[in-house]
């Protein structure tokens, strides 16, 4: 038989979702694994949002919608962006689709030609690199480390720009590092982006999950940048709605229109029912967001306190999101629970095998020295996982 698409065969599967599958498989076999894998909150979708979804089913919202989403949801998103971040958009600037992941892909699809370069600061969320390649474009990785709090500088950005550069991707706050760009830092980057006639994709999916500093959208720092920025966001993290699959883009009408056309031949539209539930999320009571934020704040503080007491691993306190990006490089060259540790992959595999703790190795995020822990899980689980980590570091296996 003829070979399948070479582009498709070159795509690496999502490491975050793979870890999820491994821990679910182990749990199904009765293994008591504690999972800090995929970034998905353990909270239930708030009741008023669920009720709106149920009402939508009962009201027979079972038909196709416009490809880029229903008007009342777009209006609710505009209201939310204005109230929460001071961003002024109209319905023609909004495109809704099946999760922020899909929105990101479609935004890249309509921006990029094969061979275009996309600047991607590392550590980055696993999907960007593959999505860029799925468009036939070329990721240009800018490495960062703890010394700059994993952030790129305007100078570093400017030095990476070539004639083929089309777009820059920022995640603010970041998955996996949790770092937040300040208004001043964003203004510096904005100048380089505008001066070089580039586009910006600003992934703001964790914007409401900030514990240190103040979140400012890149689209709010410079009107010239706003004209060339597509914000990506969605209900998954803020409203504990990962499985409902609703994400949106906010950006220049011309880009949004092309995304709508693209969607009309791909997904058609995001689930009508989930769109109605998302209106309740964006336009409804925001108390649920504050409650979840308070719980994440406690979990983050507990995690940091425990890590501070360990000497073989370390982490920078994350400003936002719900991840700890742990540096495990001090263990390289040593043996833990009988396993030789030479890199973060070895560490994560040995921790899973002997400590029964699932984390995501940093290689998938473009870092060889780190593993990522999602603290979107209960304090009890965090305690159990960190107790096991401590034992593992002392060469005492749990399994
Ligand atoms: N961006 C980032 C940075 C993420 O961590 C995620 C999590 N999956 C997404 C986008 C996509 O979210 P979703 O597709 O669930 O809306
Ligand atoms: N964004 C989450 C993560 O980084 C969910 C999994 C995924 O979609 O990659 O773990």
Describe the protein.
The radius of gyration is 21 Å and the shape is globular. The protein has 399 residues and is α/β, with parallel strands linked by helices. It has a 7-stranded mixed β-sheet with strand order 2-8-7-6-5-3-4, sandwiched between helices. The protein folds into 2 domains: 145 residues, Aspartate Aminotransferase, domain 1, CATH 3.90.1150; 238 residues, 3-Layer(aba) Sandwich (Aspartate Aminotransferase, domain 2). Helix 5 crosses helix 11 and helix 13 packs parallel to helix 15. It contains 15 helices and 14 strands. The chain starts with 5 loop residues before the first helix and ends in a 6-residue tail after the last helix. The model has no long low-confidence stretch (mean pLDDT 96). The longest helix is centred in the last third of the chain and has 22 residues. The chain binds 4'-deoxy-4'-aminopyridoxal-5'-phosphate and glutamic acid. The site of 4'-deoxy-4'-aminopyridoxal-5'-phosphate has 13 residues, from helix 5.
Helix-strand layout with pairing:
Layout: H1 6-9, H2 15-28, E1 34-35, H3 47-58, H4 71-85, E2 94-97, H5 100-111, E3 117-122, H6 126-134, E4 138-143, H7 154-160, E5 165-171, H8 183-195, E6 199-203, H9 223-226, E7 229-234, H10 235-238, E8 247-250, H11 253-264, H12 272-283, H13 287-308, E9 323-327, E10 334-336, E11 339-341, H14 344-355, E12 357-358, E13 360-361, E14 370-374, H15 379-393
Parallel strand pairs: 1-12, 3-4, 3-5, 5-6, 6-7
Antiparallel strand pairs: 2-8, 7-8, 9-14, 10-11, 13-14
Helix pairs in contact: 3-12, 4-12, 5-6, 5-11, 7-8, 13-15
Bound molecules: 4'-deoxy-4'-aminopyridoxal-5'-phosphate and glutamic acid.
């Amino acid at each position: 038989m003829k070979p399948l698409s070479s582009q498709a065969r070159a795509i690496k599967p999502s490491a975050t979702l793979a870890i999820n599958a491994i821990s679910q498989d182990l749990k199904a076999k009765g293994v008591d694994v504690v999972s800090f894998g995929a970034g998905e909150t353990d909270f239930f979708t708030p009741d008023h949002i669920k009720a709106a979804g149920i009402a939508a089913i009962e009201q027979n919202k079972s038909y196709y919608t416009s490809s880029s989403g229903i008007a009342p949801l777009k209006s609710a998103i505009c209201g939310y962006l204005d109230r929460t971040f001071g961003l002024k958009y109209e319905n023609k600037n909004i495109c809704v689709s099946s999760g922020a992941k899909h929105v990101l892909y479609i935004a890249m699809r309509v921006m990029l030609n094969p061979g275009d370069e996309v600047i991607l600061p590392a550590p980055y969320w696993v999907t960007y690199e593959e999505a860029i390649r799925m468009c036939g474009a070329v990721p240009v990785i800018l490495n960062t480390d703890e010394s700059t709090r994993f952030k790129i500088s305007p100078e570093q950005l400017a030095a990476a720009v070539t004639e083929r550069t089309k777009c820059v991707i920022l995640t603010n706050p970041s998955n996996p590092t949790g770092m937040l760009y300040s208004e001043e830092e964003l203004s510096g980057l904005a100048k380089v982006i505008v001066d070089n006639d580039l586009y910006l994709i600003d992934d703001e999916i964790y914007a409401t999950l900030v514990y240190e500093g103040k979140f400012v959208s890149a689209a709010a720092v410079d009107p010239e940048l706003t004209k060339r920025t597509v914000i990506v966001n969605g209900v998954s993290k803020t409203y504990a709605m990962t499985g409902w699959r609703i994400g949106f883009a906010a950006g220049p009408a011309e880009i949004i229109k092309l995304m709508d056309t693209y969607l009309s031949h791909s997904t058609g539209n995001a689930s009508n029912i989930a769109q109605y539930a998302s209106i309740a999320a964006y336009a409804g009571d925001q108390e649920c967001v504050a409650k979840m934020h308070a719980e994440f704040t406690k979990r983050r503080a507990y995690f940091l306190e425990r890590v501070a007491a360990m000497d073989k691993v370390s982490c920078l306190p994350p400003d936002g999101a719900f991840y700890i990006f742990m540096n495990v490089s001090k263990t390289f060259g040593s043996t833990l629970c009988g396993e030789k540790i030479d890199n973060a992959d070895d560490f994560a595999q040995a921790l899973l095998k002997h400590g029964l703790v699932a984390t995501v190795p940093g290689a998938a995020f473009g870092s060889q020295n780190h593993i990522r822990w999602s603290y979107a899980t209960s304090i009890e689980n965090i305690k159990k996982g960190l107790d096991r980590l401590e034992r593992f570091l002392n060469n005492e296996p749990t399994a």
